[in-house]
Design a protein that fits this description.
Helices cover 15% and strands 45% of the residues. It is mostly beta strands. The longest helix has 11 residues, at 4-14. InterPro entries: DUF4292 (IPR025634).
Length: 255
């Protein structure tokens, strides 16, 4: 949506990252001897619990070798709203359980619709909860010991359904040191689709473990899209506003 040349100057001049409130989580002692029930219980204990979150978010988008990178302000009110604003509000996006919306002042256009747009980008069916979970390092499907089983492979727990779905193959990798998601993967073999979300780094913020560096790989047939997200200067539990109004006169686009 935003070309790099329009924002580089702004990023260099105005954006200052403050990392004092967080620290990167290093690998600790791994526990590879848990049952599935014990593992998922430990994983549940690590689910981030906050009301609001804000940070600087660096987004790098690469499709077919064309790469764009930009930094935005990111705010969230858990279970209610995800909000993004580029410098000077050139581009804004608002994601709620009901809709996905964004506008772009560079070409005076806006989009407002359901989750089909995001689902098409990532090649799997999404809703608000799944998008929120992808951002915050939580599984996009509910993990329970009755329907999932765990094994150990290459120093990580692999969690998968006891019986894979006919059209989907689902895998989750959990870090045995802190039990957060290392990777989650959804494959649709008949559709030649694959979504993989890798959590390369976590950070501790006010005793909460939250992603620091996330890599999203979406493959559909021969097309590959890679999105990298880097969260900087995360703060929690602040009173936040989510201002959003599509300017008058903008042209609606269909995606």
């Amino acid at each position: 949506m935003i070309k790099l040349k329009y924002i580089v100057f702004t990023v260099l001049t105005f954006l200052v990252f403050n990392c004092k409130s967080s620290k990167t989580v290093a690998g600790g002692e791994a526990n590879l001897n848990l049952t599935t029930k014990q593992l998922l219980k430990e994983h549940t204990k690590q689910v981030a619990n906050f009301k609001t979150l804000q940070s600087k978010l660096k987004i790098t988008y690469n499709q077919d070798g064309n790469e764009q990178s930009y930094t935005v302000n990111f705010r969230a009110k858990k279970d209610e709203v995800l909000w993004i604003s580029a410098a000077f509000s050139v581009v804004k996006a608002l994601v709620t359980p009901e809709k996905v919306s964004f506008y772009n002042k560079l070409d005076n256009t806006y989009f407002e619709g359901d989750y089909k747009y995001l689902s098409n980008i990532l090649g799997t069916e999404l809703d608000f909860e799944k998008v929120q979970n992808l951002l915050f390092g939580e599984p996009i499907f509910n993990l329970d010991a009755a329907n999932y089983e765990a094994s150990v492979n290459e120093g990580a727990y692999v969690v998968q359904p006891k019986q894979q779905r006919a059209l989907f193959e689902i895998f989750f990798l959990l870090d045995p040191a802190h039990f957060k998601v290392k990777s989650q993967q959804v494959t649709q073999p008949k559709e030649f689709r694959h979504l993989q979300v890798d959590y390369l780094k976590y950070q501790e913020v006010e005793k909460q473990l939250l992603p620091e560096l996330v890599k999203v790989i979406a493959v559909e047939a021969s097309k590959e899209t890679i999105i990298e997200l880097e969260f900087k200067g995360i703060t929690l539990k602040e009173d936040l506003s989510f201002p959003y109004k599509i300017p008058s006169g903008f042209k609606e686009i269909k995606l």
